[in-house]
Amino acid sequence: MSWKDLYKTKLVSAEEAVRVVNPNDRVFYSLGGNAPLDLINALSRRLPELGHLTFITGSVAYPFEYLVNPEYKAFFKHHTFFLVSDRTVVNQECIEPYPFHFSSVEDLLKNQAKPNVMMCECAPPDEHGYFNYGCFGTYCNHAVARRASKILIQVNRNTPVVYGRQNVIHISEVDHVIENDHELFDVVTERPPMLDVETRIAGYLVERIEDGSTLQIGVGGLANAVSSLLESKKNLGVYSEYFMDSFLDLIEKGIINGKRKTFHHGEITCSFGPNSRTGCDFVHKNPAVMYYPVSYINNPYNIARNDKMVSINNALMVDLTGQVCAESLGFKHYSGTGGQVDFVRGAMMAKDGQSFITLPSCVTGKEKPISRIVLTLPPGQAVTTLRTDVDKVVTEYGIAELRHKSISERVNEMIRIAHPQFRDELRFEAKKAGLLH
After folding, report:
1. How do strand 309-314 and strand 369-371 relate by DSSP bridges?
2. Residue 96 is part of a domain; what is its CATH number?
3. Which residues form the domain of 283?
4. Using one digit for the tens of pLDDT, what is the confidence trace for 393-414?
5. End-to-end CA distance of the chain, in Å?
């Protein structure tokens, strides 16, 4: 039987496809823009009949029925790698984050998550019957497919075809296929204006980025600010878990070209993204952009093979000794551990590498500003990156050099980049706590 004939035998409706799911199954679906919208909603409607399911995913982009319909909350548990829109859904009590480093996702899947059903969205099959996972599915779909006993695919012709490693699956490995096109999530028509504080932070960063550096930049408005100030640089490279839309202008102008990359020379190397239609069109069948599983991209030893590796990641709060929280607000989970620690460690292992943790010095509270540099992290506030790993912390008031510094030296550095309104108070608290003498 040809692959085309095999495809026809497996082509069904979404409602028919999800009939293979049984009570208590553990269902993984692709992250972000490659989540199979119609399969997930069809499965949501089966929840009362099934009694209970466990969903496993990350970076949810769509308001799936099971997450927003309160009638379903008794019938599922939602485990997430990284919170995005699922931090605001109705059925919050059903969401349980996995704190883990992205580099260890395969170990998590094998020993803890243990999905037995996989659902993903793909581009139509190629001339040999292989579906392409698109620009979010390469993250870990291949590792899930090796373990899942049932695999369901939604074909969406808007899904970009990306090149790289472990980013395809053959029709012979799939149980059912559905077809339904829809626009990819979060289509960006224009970038939001840069905030003054982001531009000031980016200014300090760009001064430290040398020609020939290889970049990893975390998600957020700061990425746009950094990219806008890099136009004076030459021969930059990208080795990043996430392909930022803000890279596109620098690629077009030849500033990002990978000519001096020492690992995966000449290519843009990533695991997932971008979010915009323009970005998806750029990566579609583009041999200059190569996607790899996140366990490979985020392996600190692979990161360290890039000379002049520059890692830039965001924080919610940092204490005076350099402990970084980037994932929770008190006990409330906000995002995820993600790949921050992987890239902090990998960059510091690299020849001439640098790692930056960035945050505004304060945030506007209900009654008065609140410092994001604190004596100690509040109860429940997770330590994402250990102070022993931190290299540099950056606010709009400068760069604190923390690597290998003593406690008192760290405290003085952090107070120096705090908002002026809070410096005296922080110094008083540090002396009272015995951190300064």
Report:
1. unpaired
2. 3.40.1080.10
3. 196-432
4. 999 999 999 999 999 999 999 9
5. 80
Q: Residue 195 burial (CB < 10 Å; 0-12/13-18/19+)?
A: middle
Of the candidates 243, 246, 238, 187, the residue with the CA atom closest to the CA atom of residue 221: 246
Counted domains in the chain: 2
| Alpha-carbon span 33 to 274, nearest angstrom | 9
**Average pLDDT score over residue span 216-227:** 83
- Both 175 and 205 in one domain: the answer is no
Together in a domain, 223 and 175:
no
- pLDDT, residue 85, reads 81
Count Cβ atoms within 10 A of the Cβ of residue 214 and give its class: 0-12 exposed, 13-18 middle, 19 or more buried. buried
d(CA 434, CA 341): 29
Separation between Cα atoms, residue 427 and residue 432, nearest integer Å = 9
CA distance 273 to 434: 45
- 188 located within any domain: no
Q: For the whole model, what pTM was predicted?
A: 0.96
Same domain, 129 and 241: no
Task: Kindly state whether residues 317 and 374 are assigned to the same domain.
Answer: yes
At 150, phi and psi to the nearest 5?
A: -135, 130
CATH number at residue 348: 3.40.1080.20
Could you tell me which residues are beta bridge partners of residue 29? 119
The catalytic residues are: 241
Query: Cα dihedral angle (162, 165, 167, 171), rounded to 10 degrees?
Result: 120
**pLDDT tens digits, 186-206:** 545 455 667 899 999 999 999
The neighbouring-strand residues paired with 318 are: 324, 373
- Is residue 27 within 8 A of residue 76, CB to CB? The reply is no
Query: What one-letter code names the amino acid at 416?
Result: R
Percent of the chain residues topping a pLDDT of 90: 87
Q: Where are the alpha helices (DSSP H) in 314-368?
A: 340-349
Are 64 and 92 part of one and the same domain? yes
234 in helix, strand or coil?
coil
What pLDDT sits at residue 326? 96
Q: Are residues 239 and 174 in the same domain?
A: no
Q: Are residues 218 and 354 in the same domain?
A: yes
**Domain identity same for 381 and 408:** yes
